[in-house]
Amino acid sequence: MRDIRTADGDDLDALRRLETRCFDLDAQSRRSLRHLLTRANATVRVVDGDDGLLAGAVLLFRRGTRSARLYSVAVVPEARGGGLARRLLADAERLAAARGCRRLRAEARLGNTASRALFAAAGYRERACLPGYYPGGEAGIRLEKEL
Questions:
Q1: Per residue in 125-139, pLDDT tens?
Q2: Which are the contacts of 39, defined by CB distance < 8 A and separation ≥ 6?
Q3: Helix (H) or strand (E) holding 31
Q4: Which residues of 122-144 are buried (b: 16+ CB within 10 A; e: fewer)?
Q5: Which of 42, 43, 50, 84 has the most CB within a 10 Å radius?
């Protein structure tokens, strides 16, 4: 089983490759990833593979609130179905709780049944439909779990 670790500036190129492999329309730019790694109130967690990153998750924190937001979970196509997303989700919940957060929020594409099933199995509730939320006009769904 591969370990989850916190990404740093040396992971920038690998994170960008992971994003472009996993997301067609809304991959994070290099600039955005650099900001998440260095300046944002965020934690980026990754799982290494033999030829680069297998998976990653971005967890955002907002000062003055008891909520965290799971901004992104990405798993390369050949590693899907092996439990990496589930492990990253549990890791994000643990980190958010350790920072005093009482709930974790996320969004998923309305048509992404695998992602929605992952969140449902982990105890998330679908809170709101988000029409036109994603690039290309696809609707999203807001998810939330009390920690």
A1: 999 999 999 988 999
A2: none
A3: helix 30-38
A4: bebeeeeebeebbeeebebbbbb
A5: 84
Report residue 22 as tokens. Answer: 């996993």
Helix (H) / strand (E) containing 37: helix 30-38
Is the pTM of the predicted complex or chain greater than 0.90? yes
Bridge-partner residues for 133, per DSSP? none
Handedness of CA 79, 84, 86, 92 (dihedral sign): negative
Report the C-alpha gap between 54 and 67 in whole angstroms.
Answer: 27
Of 107, 91, 102, the residue nearest 145 (C-alpha) = 102
86: containing domain: 4-146
- For residue 120, the Cα-to-chain-centroid distance in whole angstroms is 15
Domain count, the chain: 1
Among all chains, which residue has been given the structure tokens 């449902």?
Answer: 120
- Residue pair 72/36 in contact by the 8 Å Cβ criterion: no
Render pLDDT for 96-136 as a digit per residue (tens, 0 to 9): 999 999 999 999 999 999 999 999 999 999 999 999 999 88
**CATH number of domain containing 39:** 3.40.630.30
Whole-angstrom distance between the N-terminal and C-terminal Cα of the chain? 26
